[in-house]
Write a structure and sequence with these properties.
The chain has about 850 residues and is of the alpha+beta class. It is built from 37 helices and 18 strands. Strands 1-6-3-4-2-5 form a six-stranded mixed beta sheet, with helices on both faces. The chain has a five-stranded antiparallel beta sheet with strand order 9-10-11-13-12.
C-alpha cells in the first residue's frame, strides 16, 4: 500500500483517469455535504486562513492498461468527494464562460475535466459509474442539463453555480482565479494506492460511514470491467438491465437482494462458498466466461428464473409444484436453495421428472419439519444441504433419502412422542401455518376455502382474563389451570384456522365452538361434539392430528434407526442451574464432534462433570471426557478396569515411550492392579465461559482423534488376546451378568428422583454411580463379589467446593450417630466414603427385586440426610 497527500492539481492535472466502479453507490451527497465543502473552501480564501485543508482519503487500485496508455485508477473510497469537486470545477468553468472569460474556462476544462484529444469514455478525467455517467458527462461537456432535473448531480451543479456566481459578482476574473487556486492547490486528499485482489474487502473496511456494500455490486463491476467502456451502455440496456430487473419489486412481490442468488448459483454443484466470499468465488469461477458476457448473462438469467421460483413460489404456474414450493418456503430454509437450484436445473434440462422433483421437495420438507418438531439443530444445514448435492447420482430422490436418513431424519414414533408437548406456534409460527393448511387440505373438502385469508387461532386463548370468559376458562381447565395453560397453549392440538379471529378473541369455549362451526373447515368440525376443552382434550386432538401429520410428510420405510442427538433430547426435570449448564456443555460438544465426523451417539450428554464412551466389547476400556470447574482443568482419559483392564494396561505401559512418541506429547499414567487411567489434561480453563466452549470442545476433539489413532487400536488387539484366556473370558461373562443386573436396577429406579449416570449400567462394572448431586459429590452402588456384599455409598471428593468439604468433615467428626439414626443403619466410614451394606448374591436373579428396592430406599435416605446438611439445592 502506498499513501501520500496530494493536491487536487496533482490528482487531476495529469494524464491519469479515475473510474468509479459499478459497485460504488450512485452520487448521493446532499445540500448539507455541499454546504460544508463550500464553507471550507470559502474560508480558505480569507486572509490568515490555514494553508492546507485535508478532505480525507482517495483510495484507488490500479487498473491494467496497455503500454503507451495513461494510467487508470479504480476508485474504492472518495468517489463522493472527487465527484463533488468535479461538479464545483464545472460550475466555475460555466460561470467563467457566462462572463466571457473563455480562456479561463478553457484552462479549467483542459486541466481538470477533459482530455480534449481523446474520444469516448477515455475523454473524462473522472468517469462516473453507469447511472451517473450520462448527466455528469453532459455537464463536463458543457451541454444542456435540463433533461436531468431530478438528478442529484444537477442539483449539486445548480447549488455551486449559484454560489460561485455570487462570490464572483465583483472582480469576477480575480475571484474565480483565487477560487480555482484554493481548490486545486490548497485542498488535499490522502491518495492511497492499494494492490489487492478483492477491492470489495478494501471498500467494505473503509466504507464505515457509507451505505453497506453488496457483493452483487462488485460482481456487476467485475463483469462490466471486461466490456469496453464504449460498449458498456449497450450491454447494460440489452442484457444486464433485464437481468437485474428480474429481482425488482412488482405488484405483488418485494424486491429481492441479488447477492444470495449469486451464492446459491455458485454452490449449485456442491462446492461450498463462504458467505463473505461470494465475489471472490464468482470471479475465480468466471475468469474465462466473463470474456463472453452475452453467453454468461444468458446462463445467469436462466438460473435466476429458477432461483426466483424458490423466492416467489406464488408466481409458479404449475399448481402442484407451486403448492410444494410454498411448503418449502414455509420451512424457512434458504440454506437449501443451492440444492433446490440443482434439482430445478435437472428438471429444466429434462434430467429429472416433475414427479421425482416434487418427491425430492416433499422429502426435504419432511426432513426439516420432523427435525424441527424433535428439537434437532439447524446449525449444520448450510453445509449439509450443499454436501447433499454431491451424493446425487442416477436416482436423485433415493440418493437424497439415504443422505437424510444418515443425518437424523426422525421416525413416526419420535414425532408423535414430541408433538404433544412441542410449543409449535411459539417455536415455529411459519411452519405452523404450513402444517394447519396441509392438514385442512388433507380432508379433501369439495368446497375449497381460500386458506390464505384465514388466521391461526388458539382455541384456549393466548390471554385468559378475569372477566366472565376468563373465569369460564379457569373453571374448565380446573385446578392448576396455569400449568395447563403454560404447557399446552402453543401445541398443535390447541391450534386451528379461522376467519373469525377478532370475533373469537378470548371468548369462552362454548362461544368459540359456535363460531368455529361457521368456518366450514374440516379441522374445526372436531370441536362440535366436545363439551369441554381442557388438557385431556387438547392432548387427544394433538394425537389425532399427529397421525395425519406423519402421513402427510412421511419418512421412507427403512432399517435405519433414528436416535435423537444430545441437543434434541428433552432436558430432565429438576436439574439445578449448574447441572443444566453441565448438560448444555456436553450437548454442544456432541454437536461439535459430529461436525468433525465422529459417529453420532459416540458420547451421550449428561448433567455431569464427566462423560464416558466405551471402546471395545469387554466394557473394560472407556474414554472419559471431563472437567474440574474449581481447578479450571479439562481432561481426556483412557480408563481401564477389572481383570481385563489390568491385562490391557500392562502391555500399554511397556509401550509407553512409543505411544507418547506417536502422540507427540506426554501422558499421565496411573496404573494399578485392577487397571488404571492414562490421561492428558489442560489447565487454566474458564469452564463457565460459554464463548470459550468451542475452543475447549475442539481440544477434546483433537485429543480424541489422537487417542483413537494411537491407543484405541492397541486396546482392541489386547482385548481380543485377553478373551483367549479362560479366566479373563469368565470375567467377561461376569461383566455381562453385571450389565443385566444394573440395567434391572435402573429400571427399578423409574419414577423416583434417582437415576444412574448415562452408560453406567452398560459398563458392567461392580460399581454403578448415580448422577452427581453436585461437583465432587457422589452417590453410588457397588457389589463386592468376593464377600457377596451390596453397598450404597456417599462421597465428597477433593473436587467439591470448599464449603461442602468443610461441612462433610464436620459431619464425620461430630454427627455420625445422628446420621445413623436418620438413615436407620450403621454407617461405615473410610475417607472420603460413607456406606452401608447388605448380603447379596447377584447370581440369583429372583432376589434382584429385593436388592434393587433396598438400593433405591437407601440411596433416597442418603440424599435426604446429606443434601440439606451440605447446602445442596
Amino acid at each position: 500500500m502506498q499513501a501520500q497527500p496530494k493536491t487536487i492539481r496533482e490528482i487531476l492535472h495529469t494524464g491519469d483517469q479515475y473510474i468509479i466502479p459499478l459497485f460504488q453507490r450512485y452520487y448521493s451527497w446532499e445540500k448539507s455535504h455541499w454546504e460544508r465543502l463550500r464553507m471550507d473552501v470559502w474560508a480558505l480564501m480569507e486572509n490568515g486562513a490555514k494553508p492546507i485543508h485535508f478532505l480525507g482519503p482517495l483510495v484507488c487500485t490500479l487498473l491494467p492498461r496497455l503500454p503507451g496508455n495513461s494510467s487508470a485508477f479504480q476508485l474504492i473510497d472518495g468517489q463522493q468527494r472527487i465527484t463533488t469537486l468535479t461538479i464545483l470545477l464545472a460550475a466555475i468553468r460555466d460561470v467563467a464562460q457566462s462572463r466571457n472569460l473563455n480562456d479561463f474556462a478553457e484552462e479549467v476544462t483542459e486541466d481538470y475535466l477533459l482530455f480534449k484529444r481523446k474520444q469516448g469514455s477515455d475523454r473524462y478525467k473522472v468517469l462516473p459509474r453507469l447511472g451517473d455517467r450520462e448527466v455528469l458527462t453532459t455537464m463536463i461537456e458543457g451541454n444542456d442539463m435540463s433533461g436531468f432535473s431530478d438528478s442529484p448531480v444537477f442539483e449539486a451543479w445548480k447549488y455551486f453555480h449559484r454560489h460561485v456566481q455570487h462570490l464572483s459578482r465583483k472582480d469576477t476574473e480575480q475571484q474565480l482565479a483565487k477560487l480555482l487556486d484554493v481548490i486545486t492547490n490548497r485542498l488535499n486528499l490522502v491518495a492511497v494506492l492499494i494492490d489487492g485482489e478483492n477491492p470489495y474487502e478494501i471498500f467494505d473496511s473503509l466504507n464505515s460511514t457509507g451505505l453497506p456494500l453488496k457483493e452483487s455490486d462488485l460482481i456487476r463491476n467485475f463483469v462490466f470491467m471486461e466490456i469496453p467502456l464504449a460498449k458498456q451502455q449497450e450491454f447494460n440496456d440489452q442484457h444486464w438491465k433485464q437481468f437485474e430487473e428480474m429481482f425488482d419489486a412488482n405488484d405483488t412481490e418485494e424486491a429481492i437482494e441479488m447477492t444470495p442468488f449469486y451464492r446459491d448459483y455458485l454452490m449449485r454443484n456442491g462446492k461450498y462458498s463462504k458467505e463473505d466470499a461470494t465475489f471472490v468465488d464468482f470471479k475465480n469461477a468466471h475468469e474465462d466466461a466473463v470474456r463472453q458476457p452475452e453467453v454468461m448473462i444468458g446462463e445467469l438469467k436462466r438460473y435466476a428464473r429458477l432461483d426466483l421460483m424458490l423466492r416467489r413460489p406464488g408466481a409458479v404456474k404449475d399448481a402442484t409444484l407451486r403448492g410444494i414450493l410454498r411448503q418449502v418456503d414455509g420451512m424457512e430454509i434458504t440454506t437449501a436453495y443451492p440444492l433446490l437450484l440443482n434439482l430445478l436445473d435437472r428438471n429444466d434440462r429434462g434430467q429429472l421428472s416433475k414427479e421425482d422433483l416434487c418427491g425430492c421437495l416433499e422429502d426435504l420438507v419432511s426432513f426439516v419439519l420432523r427435525r424441527s418438531i424433535c428439537g434437532e439443530t439447524t446449525r449444520t444445514y448450510g453445509k449439509w444441504f450443499v454436501e447433499a448435492i454431491t451424493v446425487i447420482r442416477d436416482h436423485p430422490r433415493r440418493d437424497l433419502q439415504t443422505y437424510w436418513l444418515s443425518r437424523r431424519w426422525p421416525d413416526d414414533a419420535a414425532v408423535k412422542a414430541r408433538l404433544p408437548s412441542f410449543e409449535l406456534y411459539r417455536r415455529e409460527s411459519t411452519k405452523t401455518r404450513v402444517i394447519l393448511e396441509a392438514l385442512e387440505e388433507s380432508f379433501g373438502h369439495r368446497e375449497r376455502v381460500d386458506l390464505s385469508t384465514l388466521t391461526i387461532e388458539h382455541v384456549m386463548p393466548q390471554t385468559i382474563t378475569n372477566n366472565k370468559h376468563g373465569k369460564a376458562w379457569k373453571e374448565m381447565l380446573g385446578d392448576g389451570w396455569e400449568k395447563t395453560y403454560d404447557a399446552l397453549l402453543h401445541t398443535l392440538g390447541n391450534l386451528t384456522l379461522t376467519g373469525y379471529n377478532t370475533e373469537l378473541s378470548n371468548s369462552a369455549f362454548e362461544t368459540k365452538k359456535v363460531e368455529l362451526a361457521k368456518s366450514h373447515l374440516d379441522l374445526n368440525a372436531y370441536f362440535n361434539a366436545l363439551a369441554k376443552w381442557d388438557a385431556e382434550t387438547i392432548r387427544a386432538r394433538t394425537t389425532v392430528l399427529a397421525e395425519r401429520l406423519v402421513t402427510l410428510w412421511p419418512r421412507p420405510a427403512t432399517e435405519v434407526i433414528y436416535a435423537a442427538s444430545a441437543e434434541a433430547i428433552p432436558e430432565p426435570e429438576g436439574l439445578t442451574n449448574a447441572a443444566k449448564q453441565r448438560l448444555e456443555y456436553w450437548r454442544q460438544m456432541d454437536v461439535r464432534l459430529e461436525e468433525r465426523g465422529v459417529p453420532r451417539d459416540f458420547i451421550v450428554a449428561a448433567p455431569d462433570s464427566s462423560i464416558i464412551a466405551s471402546i471395545g466389547d469387554s466394557g473394560a476400556a472407556e474414554f472419559e471426557f471431563g472437567f474440574n470447574q474449581q481447578r479450571g482443568r479439562i481432561f481426556v482419559s483412557l480408563n481401564l478396569s477389572d481383570e481385563m483392564g489390568a491385562f490391557i494396561a500392562s502391555p500399554l505401559t511397556e509401550a509407553k515411550a512409543a505411544i507418547e512418541q506417536e502422540l507427540g506429547y506426554k501422558l499421565d499414567w496411573e496404573i494399578r492392579n485392577q487397571g488404571g487411567e492414562i490421561s492428558i489434561s489442560d489447565e487454566g480453563i474458564q469452564i463457565r465461559d460459554e464463548n470459550d466452549w468451542p475452543v475447549q470442545h475442539d481440544w477434546f476433539g483433537d485429543r480424541l482423534e489422537d487417542f483413537q489413532r494411537v491407543l484405541q487400536p492397541r486396546v482392541i488387539v489386547l482385548e481380543k488376546e485377553a478373551l483367549k484366556d479362560p479366566e479373563l473370558r469368565q470375567a467377561h461373562e461376569q461383566r455381562g451378568l453385571r450389565v443385566k443386573y444394573w440395567r434391572a436396577c435402573s429400571a427399578a429406579l423409574t419414577g423416583s428422583q434417582l437415576s444412574f449416570r448415562e452408560n453406567a449400567p452398560d459398563a458392567g462394572r461392580t460399581l454403578c454411580r448415580f448422577r452427581p448431586l453436585d461437583d465432587g459429590v457422589y452417590l453410588g452402588a457397588q457389589y463386592y463379589p468376593t464377600t457377596s456384599q451390596l453397598c450404597v455409598y456417599f462421597a465428597v471428593w477433593s473436587s467439591a467446593v470448599r464449603k461442602q468439604r468443610q461441612l462433610f468433615k464436620e459431619l464425620v467428626e461430630s454427627h455420625i450417630p445422628e446420621l445413623e439414626t436418620q438413615i436407620g443403619e450403621k454407617l461405615h466410614w473410610e475417607d472420603p466414603y460413607f456406606w452401608v451394606s447388605i448380603p447379596a448374591d447377584i447370581g440369583t436373579s429372583s432376589d434382584w427385586p429385593r436388592q434393587h428396592q433396598w438400593v433405591k430406599e437407601t440411596a433416597e435416605k442418603f440424599i435426604a440426610t446429606f443434601k440439606p446438611r451440605l447446602g445442596i439445592e
